[in-house]
Structures are given as C-alpha cells and as structure tokens.
Give the backbone structure.
Amino acid sequence: MKSPDKRKTKNNSLSAVNFFAEAGLLKKVKRSGWWVAGIKDPESVAEHSFRCAIMAYYIAHTEGVDPYKSLVMALFNDIHEARINDLHKMGHYYIDFKKAETKVFMDQIKSLNPKVKSEMALLRTAFEKQTTKEAIVARDADILECLLQAKEYYENGHLKAKKFFQKAPDYLRTKTAQEMWRTIRNWDSSKWWEAVVKFER
C-alpha cells in the first residue's frame, strides 16, 4: 500500500499535467475582439498572453516593482478562457463574464499543489482588484499588448483595428506604459525587422 505522501505527490503531478494540457487549449482559442474588427484569423489567447507577460516583466522593472509577480499575473490573466473561450465586449454587455471567469479559475487551480494554488489565488485576486503596483503593471501590459497588436494589424491593412486606439490608452496608469503608447502610436511596425535583416541596397 502506498503511503499518503506518495499518493498525494502522484495526484499533484497528475493535476499539474492536466492543467498544462488545459493551458495548451489557449493556443487554439482566438481573441474574439479582433473578429469584430474584421480580422478573419486573429492571434490566439496564448500568443497574447506570451507577449503580455514579456511586457509586464519589462514594465515592472522600469517601474521598480516585483517583475515576477507582474509577469505571473499577466501570464495567467486569461487562463480561464481555456474553458469558456474569449468573449468580446459586446458579449460582456449581456453576460456577467467576470463572475464566470472567477469560478472557472478557482476550479482550474483547486487540485494543484497547495503552494502553487495559494500563490496563484493571491495574485489573481490582486490583479482583479488592482490592489498592488504589480497588478497595475500587469493590467497596463494587457492593455498595451492589445494596442501594439492593433497597430500591427492596422499597418497590415486592417483599418478598423485603429478603433482600439481611441479609448484603451486612457486606461494606462503607469508612466512607462503611457510613454510606450506614445512610442507605439508613431512607430512603424516594419522598421525593427528591416533593421535586423539589413536589406541590401
């Protein structure tokens, strides 16, 4: 007969693997707001979350707050969408999606290692309530990533993506994110890779 500790470790391991597999669904879930802007095959939630986490890490450093906490908040911000998909703002008008997001997230982490579960729950609560500087940074990264993506889509011919420039910047709270938005607004999205490739003349 296996000891309780070994059974617990095995169960935690299985729960973790199941959680990883579920997170993988985000590679298939599309960001639905871009459909409204006329983009047929938009980025996935996983693609958004990846760049969002990188941006949160950077902004946290420049703002002098814990980059680890901001990165984790940004990375797991949309993990619930593995079960209930992404819902654009029109849908949010009719459905209390926030309540569903919280319920899904708590179900997703309930069988994980207690230390992991505890930290994820604390960081999620801080993010949702915007009670820490790290949470503010993570939210700014989420908004800024959307703005950066909108600029890239706009410059690739999706003109309606420009509508995202109208209100989203007003929600940025950190000086770093606000400055980055001013840069993005006047930025040519092809310049960075042209400089890397160094085209022959």
Observations:
- The two ends are 74 Å apart (CA to CA).
- The chain has a mean pLDDT of 93.
- The chain is about 70% helix and 0% strand.
- The domain at 4-189 is CATH 1.10.3210.10 (Hypothetical protein af1432).
